[in-house]
Amino acid sequence: xxxxxxxxxxxxxxxxxxxxxxxxxxxxxxxxxxxxxxxxxxxxxxxxxxxxxxxxxxxxxxxxxxxxxxxxxxxxxxxxxxxxxxxxxxxxxxxxxxxxxxxxxxxxxxxxxxxxxxxxxxxxxxxxxxxxxxxxxxxxxxxxxxxxxxxxxxxxxxxxxxxxxxxxxxxxxxxxxxxxxxxxxxxxxxxxxxxxxxxxxxxxxxxxxxxxxxxxxxxxxxxxxxxxxxxxxxxxxxxxxxxxxxxxxxxxxxxxx
Length: 257
Known about the structure:
The chain has 257 residues and is an alpha/beta fold. Helix content is 39%, strand content 16%. It is built from eight helices and nine strands. The strands form two sheets. It has a six-stranded mixed beta sheet with strand order 1-3-2-6-8-9, with helices on both faces. A hairpin with a 2-residue loop joins strand 4 and strand 5 (63-64). The longest helix is centred in the middle third of the chain and has 21 residues, at 118-138. The radius of gyration is 18 Å and the shape is globular. It starts with a strand and ends in a 6-residue tail after the last helix.
């Protein structure tokens, strides 16, 4: 993985950095387009299954992910944030922090000798988020943290296929099987508390899109015509594009129409 430059703009152009795992892609795709129209250069470092935290290694599938270790060692250095207006960070944090998301557990540590301990992963999450904030704000940039969206208990392509093939009622299926808002809130409590705590700083903001994705009781798969998800937890590019506008507004509030 490496920073990519798209579009090619003059060296003096305003710059925004996007860093994340594969769950950042739905936002970053549209952000790149919006920023291009604004004359803002976006640099991106995205690696699937890699927590975007400085000096963090990941243990997953019975081994340390050396590629993730390398990405985090060079893409999140203090020098990387010099001269940028903002750093946008998005990830499926539950994958790394609480371990309630995958059949094969993942753990984080600040050493390649990863301690496979859930409490240690949560400790590293908190400490390295703060280290990231210190590096970004120390460079004079704004830190924009994206709270993780709800993830479903069923793969949405299966849901929509079954509805179509069996001529089922979408609203009934949605009201029965879409994840409950209370379940999402419980799953994300540790993560949301950490990100919201960092957002107490004047130059850090934490954005949540759960209210747009959820009703008071459940978080729908989408509409009868189109899903909000690529699978059971990755948002679709379509819905990510809608939220990208809110991210832009957080960084450049005076330039939104």
